[in-house]
Write a structure and sequence with these properties.
Elements: H1 3-11, E1 27-30, E2 35-45, H2 56-73, E3 77-87, H3 92-108, E4 112-120, E5 124-134, E6 149-152, H4 158-163, H5 170-173, H6 178-189, H7 195-201, E7 207-210, H8 215-222, E8 229-233, H9 241-245, H10 249-254, E9 261-265, H11 270-279, E10 285-291, E11 296-300, E12 303-305
Parallel strand pairs: 3-4, 8-11
Antiparallel strand pairs: 1-2, 2-5, 3-5, 6-9, 6-10, 7-9, 8-10, 11-12
Helix pairs in contact: 2-3
Length: 316
């Protein structure tokens, strides 16, 4: 049983007053005639998402950034956050650095920390994020349409490369430049959700999801679970050349922790989306199409490509 099976079996309660409940990047609750509140929560745990030696500054940044990513994926603007923090001891140095990183991320995205809870216990960080989203431009996973183009906002694989570095064979590790190591590390510890781009592009988009569990796994949530399939051209997926030169496509597609946005849009908006990507200096690209085959097909240089897994799964 993975986390999605667990949710469906035990916690998939029907929505009564919420406009959108369980099953998307954020829940939607009516705010006024023009807007929804978008609300989400993410948790980071010791020895699973971070270790005792993790830099607390970047942990503070990432704790908030992964939540902001959920609001971005809904086409919303993050506004407020509540922090639930469990720690064994209140170490001043650690807390000072953690708060500094949290504050830096909050400042960049104009998010206010308005409350929360502090406990003694096994180290764990949970943040609830609240944002606003215009009803006319809300992005949901279930708004995908047949023949939509499938897009990525930027490169994938950097965070997975950092996380899996010690598991990569020595002959392949030797080809990783210091510059690539630095980029991989920065991507893992300091994700930067593409808020500006999505705010400008949301009127051009049908559906979207943030990439936390890997492109291959998250793609299923906007295709297979909505009765569609996809054709993905791996040669079009933006990634560092190291992945191609070392045939580590699967790491880039399934490693997770990218916190970019995967979205679908009608073909007619191709030029406008490309122009916006250039305007925001983003390395995004169109990587495939939505199909009616109810399966996801990957193609590399004109030949079928098979993945041995489809992304990260808790308990999976």
């Amino acid at each position: 049983m993975n986390e999605f099976d667990l949710i469906n079996k035990y916690f998939n309660f029907p929505s009564i007053s919420a406009d959108l409940g369980i099953g998307d990047d954020a829940a939607l609750i009516n705010k006024n005639k023009n807007e929804f509140y978008a609300i989400s929560v993410d948790t980071l745990n010791l020895n699973h998402h971070f270790t005792k030696t993790s830099d607390p500054y970047y942990l503070g940044w990432k704790s908030l950034a992964v939540n902001i990513s959920d609001i971005v994926a809904m086409g919303g603007m993050p506004k407020y956050a509540l922090l639930s923090l469990s720690i064994l001891e209140p170490e001043d140095s650690w807390l000072s650095k953690f708060a500094k990183g949290l504050r830096a991320c909050a400042k960049k995205y104009n998010v206010e920390l308005i409350g929360g809870d502090t406990n003694k216990g096994s180290p764990s960080i949970s943040i609830t994020i609240i944002g606003d989203v215009l009803k006319k431009n809300v992005l949901r996973r279930d708004q995908v349409e047949i023949n939509d183009e499938i897009w990525l906002t930027s490169e994938v694989g950097y965070a997975a490369l950092h996380f899996q570095y010690n598991n990569i064979p020595q002959k392949n590790r030797q080809t990783i430049s210091n510059c690539l190591k630095k980029s991989a590390h920065e991507s893992f510890v300091k994700p930067i959700p593409p808020l500006g781009f999505i705010q400008k592009a949301k009127s051009l988009i049908h559906s979207a999801i943030d990439l936390s569990d890997g492109l291959a796994g998250d793609l299923q949530h906007i295709t297979l679970k909505n009765g569609f399939g996809a054709k993905i051209y791996i040669d079009k997926i933006p990634m560092h050349k190291w992945f191609r030169e070392n045939n580590f496509y699967e790491l880039a597609l399934t490693g997770g922790e990218d916190y970019q946005i995967l979205f679908t849009a009608p073909v007619k908006n191709n030029h406008k989306i490309n122009s916006l990507l250039k305007k925001f200096s983003m390395k995004g690209a169109m990587i495939g199409h939505v199909s009616n085959k109810k399966s996801i097909q990957y193609e590399l240089n004109g030949q079928p490509f098979h993945l041995s897994k489809d992304g990260f799964r808790h308990f999976g």
